[in-house]
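Complex 355.
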Amino acid sequence: MIGYLQLENGRTFEGTLFGKVEDVTGEVVFNTGMTGYQELMTDPSYYGQIVTMTYPLIGNYGINLEDLESDRPKITGLIVRERAKHPSNFRCEMDLDSYLKYSGVTGLEGIDTRALTKVIRDHGTMRGVITTRMLTDTQLKQRLDSYDNGDAVRQVTARESYTLEGAGVHVAIMDFGIKNNILRSFQAKGCKVTVFPATASWQEVLQVRPDGIFLSNGPGDPKDCREILENVKELVERKPTIGICLGHQLIALALGGDTQKLAFGHRGSNHPVKDLGRDRVFITSQNHGYVVKDVPESMEVTHISMNDGSIEGLRHKDKPIFTVQFHPEASPGPSDSDYIFEQFMTLLEEVEQGA
Ligand SMILES: NC(=O)CC[C@H](N)C(=O)O
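Predicted structure with glutamine bound:
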């Protein structure tokens, strides 16, 4: 069945629908990874977004149910140049189309994704609809105006707190839309983790007497997380804390810094980031549309993007707090920056010994 992508700026692309055939509205973003489509579709940070893959053939190794980053896809729509109809991989359990149908996500194939990516790169990320019939300008405007992703974190956070046992240090995790591989990364280091919904108060979190706090990745604009910010302010004062992506942005805001929206974001598996302390460049996995613009006075920059010079990591000058904008847990992407988890473990040990 024929389907259309209609963008906020009036550009229209025609293709063929797959997955669940339904009209959807979202923010249209592009991801440059050649692989990793199932991880990114299920990464809760993409909640409310229509993702276009720049790599032209998607679905060729199918879907397996082990590499999902959350219980189900969190994207609103998926746009590809060509959908692989005959996946081949020893771990493949179903094809992309069946998975999207099963989980109720709309796909659009046969799109000139290079042209679409150029539009987003030149004009910035914008809203769009995938639709079964062309909308008039007024209808399109109405649909786009009804799009609101302001409560994205609430939609994807855990409903209740839970604990995963481990013999090592105890990390309290604030789940703003956490990826499974972050939990796996902490477990691989032997940690016990207690995961809290984003709505948990700082008192509830401290009640489990954690050794450290982890602020997760998550969808949307960090400035929409007003109540969470109040909790973050209290937590960072009291415990060693690490923040990743949305967690990084929230710490910056909580300590008096500022964030802004990037023109078209960083989404892909090969973003070079310089660790200024180590004087080394790491290839990182990224997925963000916002960035820290003004660094809080109490913090300093530890990492920068080699692509656009934007801030990729911060450290507190006196307190045991540090943050990164990229994804050290990878999935998808290279695991070069797993050392960030090690660094947090070392920090917790140092605090423990100093206490
Ligand atoms: N992966 C993330 O945590 C993304 C953070 C935030 N939602 C952004 O787009 O910048």
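The two ends are 65 Å apart (CA to CA).
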